[in-house]
Amino acid sequence: MTDFERTRAMFDLPKGIVYLDGNSLGPLPRAATDAVARVMRDEWGHELIRAWNTCGWMAQPLALGDRIGRLIGAPPGTVAVGDTLSIKVYQALASALRLRPGRRVILSDSGNFPSDLYMAQGLIGLLGDRELRTPAPEDVAAAINEDVAVVMLTEVDYRTGRRHDMPALTARAHAAGALIIWDLAHSAGAVPVDVAGGNADFAVGCTYKYLNGGPGSPAFIYLGPSVADQARPALAGWLGHDAPFAFDPDYRPAGGVARMRVGTPPILAYAALSAALDVWDEVDMADLRARSIELSERFIAEVEARCPDLELASPRDPHARGSQVSFRFADGYAAMQALIARGVIGDFRAPDIMRFGFTPLYLTEAEVVRGAEVLEEVIRDRLYDRPEHRRVEAVT
Amino acid sequence: MTDFERTRAMFDLPKGIVYLDGNSLGPLPRAATDAVARVMRDEWGHELIRAWNTCGWMAQPLALGDRIGRLIGAPPGTVAVGDTLSIKVYQALASALRLRPGRRVILSDSGNFPSDLYMAQGLIGLLGDRELRTPAPEDVAAAINEDVAVVMLTEVDYRTGRRHDMPALTARAHAAGALIIWDLAHSAGAVPVDVAGGNADFAVGCTYKYLNGGPGSPAFIYLGPSVADQARPALAGWLGHDAPFAFDPDYRPAGGVARMRVGTPPILAYAALSAALDVWDEVDMADLRARSIELSERFIAEVEARCPDLELASPRDPHARGSQVSFRFADGYAAMQALIARGVIGDFRAPDIMRFGFTPLYLTEAEVVRGAEVLEEVIRDRLYDRPEHRRVEAVT
């Protein structure tokens, strides 16, 4: 059994805060600061350029990939870590289009995270003669046909937490001869995922949400056996070359997912991510999922009992959700500011979604109840009407 | 006058090492470790998601860009920091091809850094019907004609240090109706650069070499006024959107270089880079260049007097070089290993180049002489014949 008291003790959490936004930026793992300082002083500082060899820096994109792989059902050697999620989306999309040259449609859905759609638009702008289709999420299955080169979906909707049926949609895409890319931004570390068992062609995700790798920490990409040695990354960087240090003038992709590496790896970010993954080494994903459902069900029950004006925007069936719960409320932006000012941190997504993440690694049931209590106070006393909560700031 | 004793004191340098490889990975700025720890504890740890607003994280890609801009002659607001250099090369190339739709040639040179060529090859593989031409560096000017959409050159050759004539080649490209991309990987922080005065359309560079931002620290991109509001980044990420937090389903590029931002910025890496740039705030580039020439001329004189078997591979005229000096030696790989084992760190580039970087921020004349003395010993006593120096390792 996963010991969640133990994992909670592995984080530095500010006192008095109920943190329901670990689905946006995970908190600081207690060991991360020293881990980064050690890499800076003992590796970068002491070894200088030699550290690329003596400290194993070059092996990290795939070594960290293997550790993430365990959490998403990816075998060793099939996941690479680096760049940002948008870059990894682009690599997957560009590869998929080349593997289905006769087809001109990228199929996504209208609920996908905008950056995924933008990357598709950017690629289409460059290539011309392609089309991005974005039906409503519930209409995706019916929209998969033989025009479609690649289906690109985010498993868990960033606003509502609604979860796509990954195995069913993957099978449907394959039956139509299309490839499929799964964006696991809100899945990795949130729900059990089985990319290999589910026959995903590509999967991508980020590490700064549930995985707690730190602000802007690197992304990951998985290549399934269907594409591992055929995919052309488009972003053909030297680290993805079969022999990066041969300085060959011609690009020749490395075998498997190693080809999806691009430029020089971000070693300081890797040090923080590695410390974050140490926590995950303690975790069984089935335990995590059970605990996530307990916490989110409790929150829904508390909020619905206390705040009748809020409308559940997430699926009521916990198996149809990721690890977040959203409520609609017309004054949701200001209400979220009022909540944050009182130490309960969630976030807001336009036009009216108040979003709360449930992260069993460090969240307790008492905190979940406390969050609902403060939310009740904000709504009941109309604290959101106060002018200081109506000032608009960017949030991520 | 720049005080190089003062800048040297701002680095943590391992005792007993003569570091002539700051052109590959700059050393650790003394303040960087604490700066990163502070961002981790006080910003990420304490502020959590709020730090994107309360700690100014969102402003950093352009704020850091402005600080680099001063070193390369770029006005405020024209440089963005993020991703890796290969990614920035791709954005510049893809933008340039779209701005010259009737032309099918990317012109580079055979001495360019392989990753730049690979990115061009990857882009061409995706687009089809384009051609990458790589004449010898000295033949580039003559190869610029009206087939050429974009000229992509690295100002300072990574092997020999040979410097292209940036203003002349830029003028020539423009006269032929082509755009030009300058890769400043071995220029930024090495030599005075004037991207705006020289009418560069695009410039890109990395920050882990002469700028000392740390292993795999983020890259930068400059857009000249000729392309600032026309360039389409291809990698159309949400951070480059005109209103990233509107979560608009359609991409609309931000004005100017802000559109070249892609994904969520790497905040820990930025903290280290910012500490590294604090050192540069003390530096006048003309002083730096004068000192760089003094150090490299002294090294050449010492090595040529002591090691007649080594052949200078860099231009003899210091104004035709960047801030590195290379020598050819048939047993160069093993000789470099022997040198490193004796505390003098340079690097090797196939087939026979021993490469030495001269970085006035922290390098003294005494160290330069010491480096030449040890090199003399390695060559004279054939220390490179020892088996332990012949084992091949990757180096970057």
From TrEMBL, chains A, B:
**Required cofactor names:** pyridoxal 5'-phosphate
Q: Does the keyword Repeat apply?
A: no
Its pathway, per UniProt, is:
Cofactor biosynthesis; NAD(+) biosynthesis; quinolinate from L-kynurenine: step 2/3; Amino-acid degradation; L-kynurenine degradation; L-alanine and anthranilate from L-kynurenine: step 1/1
Q: Which Pfam families match?
A: KYNU_C
**Keywords annotated in UniProt:** Hydrolase, Pyridine nucleotide biosynthesis, Pyridoxal phosphate
A cellular component annotation (GO) from this entry: cytoplasm
For pyridoxal 5'-phosphate, which residues are the binding ones?
L85, S86, F113, P114, S115, D116, T154, D183, H186, Y208, W238, T264
Q: How does it assemble?
A: Homodimer.
Q: Which gene encodes it?
A: kynU
Per the entry, what this protein does is:
Catalyzes the cleavage of L-kynurenine (L-Kyn) and L-3-hydroxykynurenine (L-3OHKyn) into anthranilic acid (AA) and 3-hydroxyanthranilic acid (3-OHAA), respectively.
Whether Hydrolase counts among this entry's keywords is yes
Query: According to its UniProt record, which protein family does this protein belong to?
Result: Belongs to the kynureninase family.
Supply the name of the protein.
Kynureninase
Q: Name one GO biological process term.
A: anthranilate metabolic process
Q: Which reaction does it catalyse?
A: 3-hydroxy-L-kynurenine + H2O = 3-hydroxyanthranilate + L-alanine + H(+); L-kynurenine + H2O = anthranilate + L-alanine + H(+)
Q: What is its EC number?
A: 3.7.1.3
| One Gene Ontology term of the molecular function aspect | pyridoxal phosphate binding
Tell me where in this chain the PTM N6-(pyridoxal phosphate)lysine is found.
Answer: K209
